[in-house]
Each structure stands twice: as C-alpha cells, then as structure tokens.
C-alpha cells in the first residue's frame, strides 16, 4: 500500500505502480536470486544470454565507469576506453550505471552522445551510432604488472575451455596472480 500511495501520484500509471510494488516485494525475499523483471528487463536478460544486443558495446562497473569495451563494438570504434566514467548521455547527466544502460540501448543505427570523465577531465562528447553487439562469455585483462583479471559473464557449455584459454593468455602476458570474477 505504501508503494502504491507513493508511486501512483508520481507516474499516474497503474502498470508502473504495480511493477514498483512487485519489485519491492521481490526485493524483500531473503533469497538473493529472486527478482522481478518487467518485459524490457527480461528482454535485456535474454539478449545477455544470447551474447547479442543492440547498444554501444560496454560493460559498466557500479559507479558508471567503463570496465570493459567490447572489442569491435561501436564504443571501441568511437574511442571509449576502460576507466572512462560516463557522466552524461545525450547531454543529460546520469546518476547510476542502470540509468546509463537504459539510455544507451536503442534501435540499431540510431545515434547516442556519451560524455565521459577521463583522467579528471571531460573531453568532448563521443557521438556513437548504436549497433548490434556480439559479446563473448569471458573477458580478460592485466590489471597490474603481475595480476590478471578474468570476467566470466555466465556459465555456459564451453566456459571451461574459454576460461583456460584466457588464463593461458594472461600467464603469457606475465600474470602470476589471478582475479576471477
């Protein structure tokens, strides 16, 4: 009732109110894997499982910083880099990685302007055309001279082979320690 009383006056949309109520109820369940997804969120989840989506091709950290620029994607072609912190999308300030994700997805071939903070400075916005992005299941990089980082997106039938290959590549680059996420 509290959620309905708070949400409906803001949105005047019963569907949005019900969604907020269900999300709140699901978040109160003590099982950390329980969640409610609206149709758009479910589609994004399905896209993730299929390793393909329309967007700019980045993986974000929780603080709006780019963790991984997907090789061959629109973001890489435009010059975005890991470590860039997204501060605005299409000229509007953003406050969370979730907000960034919502704003950068869109129809294939449509433009989006991304403003980042890089090295304490804000360069001119990056104008990027959204495109089909095909992701890999495993990303790896060196995070320090002797520390490798491997990010495993989802468990899949061949993730063991991909993981072993990524670890081998990092060892060849000098990794003596690994962080597997």
Question: Mind explaining what this structure looks like?
Answer:
It contains six helices and eleven strands. It is α+β, with helices and mostly antiparallel strands. A four-stranded antiparallel sheet has the order 5-4-6-7. It has a three-stranded mixed sheet with strand order 9-10-11, covered by helices on one side. Strand 9 and strand 10 (147-152) form a beta hairpin. Helix 1 (2-11) packs antiparallel against helix 2. The protein is globular, with a radius of gyration of 19 Å.
Features:
globular, alpha+beta, 11 strands, 4-stranded antiparallel β-sheet, 3-stranded mixed β-sheet, 181 residues
What is the number of E strands?
Answer: 11
Compute the gyration radius: what is it? 19 Å
> Whole-Å distance between the termini?
39 Å
Oligomer type: single chain
Number of helices: 6
Tell me the β content.
25-35%
Could you give the order of strands across the largest sheet? 5-4-6-7
Helix content: 25-40%
Structural class: alpha+beta
Order of helices and strands: HHHEEEHEEHEEEEEHE
- Give the overall shape, derived from the CA principal axes: globular
Structure summary:
This protein is α+β, with helices and mostly antiparallel strands and 181 residues long. The chain has helices at 2-11, 14-27, 39-49, 74-78, 97-104, 159-172, and strands at 52-55, 58-60, 66-69, 85-89, 92-93, 111-117, 126-129, 131-134, 138-144, 147-152, 177-180.
How is this fold's topology laid out?
Blueprint: H1 2-11, H2 14-27, H3 39-49, E1 52-55, E2 58-60, E3 66-69, H4 74-78, E4 85-89, E5 92-93, H5 97-104, E6 111-117, E7 126-129, E8 131-134, E9 138-144, E10 147-152, H6 159-172, E11 177-180
Parallel strand pairs: 10-11
Antiparallel strand pairs: 1-8, 2-3, 4-5, 4-6, 6-7, 9-10
Helix pairs in contact: 1-2
